[in-house]
Amino acid sequence: MLKDKLIERLKTFQDVLMERVSIEKEVKELPKSIIAQEEVLLRARKSYSDRSQRLADIQARVLHMKAELAEVIDHKDRSEQQMDNISSPREFEALNKEITEAGLKEDQLRKDLRKEEENLKEAENEVKASQSLIASQESEINEKKTKILNEEASMLGRITELKKIEEELTNDLDPEIVFKFERIIKSKQGIGVVPVKGVVCSGCSIVLPAQFVNSVRQSNTVVFCPYCSRVLSYEEGDLDHDDMIVDIESGSLADLDDFGDDEEADYDGEDDIEDDAEKGGLVDSDN
Fold it and tell me: Does position 50 have pLDDT exceeding 80, yes or no?
C-alpha cells in the first residue's frame, strides 16, 4: 500500500514535471515566432533604401532634362526671331539649320522626358509600397512582441506554480531518487514509471529475472529497471505469476549488479543528460 501511494506520487510528479518542461520549451521558442517577419522587415528596409536611391537619381535626371529642354526652346525662339533680320541666303541657311536642329532636339528631349517622368511615377509608387510594407511589418512585430511578453509572463507564472507543486510532491522523498527520476523522465520521452507485466518491463520489453520481479512485487520502496532505469510498478500479466517464475530460470538479483553499475555510469555528467534529453525530444530545464 505504501509503495502504491509512492508510485502514484511519482506519476503525478511525472505529469507536473513534463508540463513544466513543455512550457519551458515553449518559452524558448516564443521569440522565434517573429524571426520570419523580422527578416521580411529587414528586406523591406533594404529595398526601400535601393528604391529611394533610384527615385533620387530619376528626379535628378528629370530636373536636368527640363533645364536642357528649356534652354533648347529658348535658343530656338531666339533663332526664329533672328529670321526677320537676315540679309543673305547663307545666313538664312545657317539660321534655318539651327532652328531645325533645335526643333529635332526639342522633340527628342520631350520624348525622353515623358519616359523618364513615367519612370519617376513608377519609382515613387515603389517607394510608397516599401514604406507601407515597413510600417505594416513594424506594427505587426510590435504587436506580436507585446503578445509574446504577455504569454511569456503567463507561462513563467505557471512554471512557478508547477515548481511549487513539485516541491510539495517530493519534499519528503530521497533527493537522490528525485534527481534520478527527474533525469529519467527527461531522457525517456516523459515516461518514468512503467509496470512490470508478468516478468517483462513494459518500458524496455526486456524479461527480468524471476527473483528481481518478485522483489518488485513485494518491495515497499522505489525499484528501478536495471535495463531502462525507469521506476517499476507491478501488474499481473496474462499468466499466473507463480507459473512464470517456474518457467523462467533467469538467475538472481546478483546477476544485475554489473549492469546496474553501467547504467549509472551512462548518466554521469551534464553532457549525458543533455544528450539523452535531445534523443527523447525534450528540452532540459534549468533545474
Answer: yes
Rounded CA separation 114/120 (Å): 10
> SS3 of 88, please?
coil
3-state DSSP call for residue 224? Answer: strand
CA–CA dist 140, 145 (Å, integer): 8
pLDDT tens-digit map of 160-181: 999 999 999 988 888 888 888 8
Specify the residue for cell string 517499476: 232
Over the chain, what is the mean pLDDT?
Answer: 82
Q: Where along the chain do its domains lie?
A: 31-168, 174-279
Share of the chain above pLDDT 90, in %: 51
Which H, E and C letters describe 47-73, residue by residue? HHHHHHHHHHHHHHHHHHHHHHHHHHH
Q: How far is CA 251 from CA 222, 226, 242, in A?
A: 21, 14, 15
Strands 231-235, 193-197: pairing is parallel
Cβ pair 233, 196 in contact under 8 A: yes
Grid cell 535601393 in the structure block, residue: 50
142: left (phi over 0), alpha (psi -120 to 50) or beta: alpha
Strand partners, 233: 195
How many other CB atoms sit within 10 Å of the CB of residue 177?
A: 16
More confident residue, 7 or 127: 127
- Which CATH class, in words, describes the domain spanning 31-168? mainly alpha
Q: What is the mean pLDDT of residues 88-96?
A: 88
**3 state SS of 195:** strand
Q: Which comes out higher in pLDDT, residue 141 or 188?
A: 141
- Does 263 score more than 80 pLDDT? no
CA atoms within 13 A on the CB side of 200: 8
Whole-number CA gyration radius for the chain: 42
Q: 251 Cβ partners below 8 Å, 6+ apart? A: 209, 211
